[in-house]
């Protein structure tokens, strides 16, 4: 079932998506960057199965608020500065094995507030192009029962930065520039 953001209102969509996630199923949701294939972290294996992706490739964890990341790891000073300067937004911060992002999208924030952190990856089969529409995102995943249609998404992917005690490494340059944020 594809539900446009404009139909029924965001609160109803959050309830529908939360119910799917709590039932152990995946959903497709728009984010501030791309369409995401999402599940609760305890069901992350479902994402790898659906996406036909090797389990050694990490997925991101989406949180409702920057403070929610602190339940996953103890932020290093550089991580904290990045969180304060760039979240909510299109920056995924990798620290201690977790790739965490606080998206700038009210539906995703409300959903993560309702169910807790959400495991997500782009809604495409592994190695395939990133879809721009809900229909394109849904096509390879007929088993996914709920697709939230957020319109055409053209934003670049998130910037992915790994932070360690030794410094910062940009793993993927996206729309967020981090030069000068961490000195």
Based on the model shown, name its key terms:
single chain; 183 residues; alpha/beta; eight-stranded mixed sheet; two-stranded parallel ribbon; 10 strands; 24% strand
Order of helices and strands: EHEEHEHEEHEHEEE
Number of strands: 10
Mean pLDDT: 92
What's the arrangement of strands in the largest beta sheet?
Answer: 2-3-7-4-6-5-9-10
Q: Distance between termini?
A: 47 Å
CA-based shape:
globular
How would you sum up this structure, described in words?
It is built from 5 helices and 10 strands; from the N terminus they run βαββαβαββαβαβββ. The protein has helices spanning 9-22, 44-51, 77-86, 106-115, 134-138; strands at residues 2-4, 27-30, 35-39, 60-62, 91-95, 98-101, 118-122, 147-149, 159-164, 167-172. An 8-stranded mixed beta sheet has the order 2-3-7-4-6-5-9-10, sandwiched between helices. A hairpin with a 2-residue loop joins β9 and β10 (167-172). It is globular. The mean pLDDT is 92.
In short:
The chain is an alpha/beta fold. The protein contains five helices and ten strands, in the order βαββαβαββαβαβββ.
How are the secondary structure elements laid out?
Elements: E1 2-4, H1 9-22, E2 27-30, E3 35-39, H2 44-51, E4 60-62, H3 77-86, E5 91-95, E6 98-101, H4 106-115, E7 118-122, H5 134-138, E8 147-149, E9 159-164, E10 167-172
Parallel strand pairs: 1-8, 4-6, 5-9
Antiparallel strand pairs: 2-3, 3-7, 4-7, 5-6, 9-10
Helix pairs in contact: 1-4
């Amino acid at each position: 079932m594809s539900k446009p953001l404009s139909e029924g209102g965001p609160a109803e969509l959050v309830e529908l998506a939360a119910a799917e996630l709590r039932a152990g199923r995946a959903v497709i949701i728009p984010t501030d960057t791309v369409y995401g294939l999402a599940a609760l972290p305890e069901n992350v294996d479902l994402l790898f199965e659906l996406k036909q992706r090797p389990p050694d490739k990490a997925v991101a964890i989406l949180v409702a608020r920057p403070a929610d990341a602190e339940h996953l790891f103890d932020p290093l000073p550089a991580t904290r500065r990045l969180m304060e300067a760039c979240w909510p937004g299109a920056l995924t911060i990798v620290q201690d094995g977790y790739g965490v992002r606080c998206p700038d999208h009210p539906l995703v924030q409300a959903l993560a507030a309702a169910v807790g952190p959400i495991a997500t990856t782009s809604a495409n089969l592994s190695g395939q192009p990133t879809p721009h529409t809900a229909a394109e995102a849904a096509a390879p995943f007929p088993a996914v029962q709920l697709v939230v249609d957020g319109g055409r998404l053209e934003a670049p992917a998130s910037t992915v930065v790994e932070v360690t005690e030794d410094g910062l490494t940009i793993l993927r340059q996206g729309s967020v520039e981090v030069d000068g944020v961490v000195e």
